[in-house]
Amino acid sequence: MAYEVQPWSSTTHATHNMEQISGPPAKTGTFYQTPRSHPWRPTMGYEAVEVTPLHEQPITNQLVASSYSPSGMCSDPVTFPNLVTGFERNPQHAARAALYTRYTPNEWTTSNVCTYADADKNRNYSEKVRSEAVRLMRETDEKTSQGQRDAARRLGERITDITFWRNELTTELEKLIAESAQLTDTKRNVQKALQDLEPPLHIAQECLYHRESRKGIELVHDHVEKSLLVEVDNLRASQEKLSQLLAKITKQLADCRAAQHSLEDDISHKESALGIDSICHQLNNYSRGINYYGGIEKYDPTVSTPGTWSGSSSTRINNSHSERSKSCQLRSDAESLINAVATSVWDCWSNTNNAFNNRASEMLEAKSKMQLHLHKTQQEIFDVEKHIELLRKAINDKSNPMKVAQTRLEARAHRPGIEMCRDNAHLRLVEEVCTIQDSMATLHRKLQEAEAQHQQLLRTKSQLESNLKQKVDALFIDREKCMGLRRSFPVNNTIKY
């Protein structure tokens, strides 16, 4: 009887899983190939085994002569005595002379049939075990491969999610950095505007100090003095507003920097996680560096879920977007305030200058006999003409900003679908167009006023020669000292944004 040997059993010394009848056979030989191949099965190795015979009842008989040794035999044979006479008989009659017979032919045949049946049963069971093992190996291999593919797919999805949020955070960070740079420029503009208010305030105060030196009836609380006081109050109020705006901008820059740090920190973590997951996604059964880490599946270092993870990035992006909105609104407010301050300062400056001019015109009208008054009047006419040219130039300068704003509105009107949003940019562009139109209308009115004033100066030039003698001191203070300071500092070129 021989057992089939599988290739892995010779290397791993696996035991045979089969039911045995009378104990395991004792191995006495080595593996060898059959001398010739059989047509019904391939040539393979077998083990040579020694079959242990069944246990038998030993023959015991006190009458056996152990010293009897027939001729031609090297060992003592078993002798069968005559039960009647006690003498030796012929060995061929030994079966009839024994005490009893061991087995019958039927028992011998039945024993063989049972042995064959047991062998068939053990072989069938062995084949079943082998088939079950092969099926189990295939199932486990398929399950393992499927699990590995599913894990790789999940890692790919995770890499996609991380890449998406990384790109969103990077885009938001770039927008925030650009917004912070614009807000920094706005802060510099506010600081410059705040510094530019000092010279006009100093000049207005100097004008008030100079006018205090007038004597007699000329020490009058006229429109020029009222305009100077209004101008001083307006400049101080403008300084207060710009200082408050500068503090808000400084605080907003700090908030934007905090949001920027949060985004950079999240992007850094995303980059690190993306690198780790990419390496894990590229690992396979033949990769270097793979190793056993016992119990790692029981260690759970996670601190978030997919919902809280994406919610954290979304919160950071929303926070950054909120800070950008605040910064954009603050820039808009700063631009509006700077323009309003520049307009108010220019208006007060112009009103004071006009008041000075009107007061000088009044004094020159009283000093019609002096030729110098005529010269000053001509100079004033020249200044008004220059002022008219400046107004015309200012009106022409508004054309390009108007074109830019209207071109932006027209270009944004071609946005597709839901992108046609009535956002802050659209509202600001509409407001810009309206502001420029109002500015141009105001400049046109100022131009009409300047042209009208120019005509008035031409008509009153001859009337201002007779009264200059009596007003020489006041005229010197107003035109030489006060207006000299104001002409030496052209506020329209300094406060211009």
Automatic annotation (TrEMBL):
It is found in: Cytoplasm, Cytoskeleton, Cilium axoneme. It comes from Anopheles gambiae (African malaria mosquito). Pfam families: Tektin. One of its GO terms (biological process) is cilium assembly. It comes from the Eukaryota. Belongs to the tektin family. Signal peptide: none annotated. This is Tektin. Residues 1-37, 305-324 are annotated as: Disordered. One of its GO terms (cellular component) is microtubule cytoskeleton. Residues 305-315 have a biased composition (Low complexity). Residues 166-193, 440-467 form a coiled coil. Residues 7-20 have a biased composition (Polar residues). Keywords: Cell projection, Cilium, Coiled coil, Cytoplasm, Flagellum.
